[in-house]
Amino acid sequence: MMDFITIPLVVGMITLGIYKLFDLFVRKKERLAIIEKIGDKFDSSMIENKFSFPLNFKFEGGFGTLKVACLLLGVGLGLLVGYFICYGTIPGYYNNGDYSYRTSEVIYGASTLLFGGLGLLIAFLIEMKYRKDKKEH
Questions:
Q1: Is the pTM of the predicted complex or chain greater than 0.70?
Q2: For 20-61, what is each residue's pLDDT tens digit?
Q3: CA 69 vs CA 73, 75, 99, 122: distances in Å
């Protein structure tokens, strides 16, 4: 029933995996370059009773969890709305006609993408409101 989303989902997962693999190697090289640069300027007299870690953990926030939650809520709501649209508007939706199958694919896909995007927009607005409130205080 939802074959339209399988191919883009698999391609997206493969692309994300390849991107993260390259990102891992690039970050490793950057870290090694930073360590070498610091190592050139480092002197053993710098750590004599002066070495301490500051323990100020502040939430600077990447709102990743909020974005994922709003996206999944939007996708779920989109699928639910798509089902109700198909059930209420397509005659013989459960009779497996080719017309009803193709129409339901478009309705499910459009409502899923629409509400998923709406969920991400809501997450963005919540994040902007939080940052604005944080700047005022």
A1: no
A2: 998 888 888 888 888 888 877 776 666 665 555 555 555 556
A3: 6, 10, 34, 11
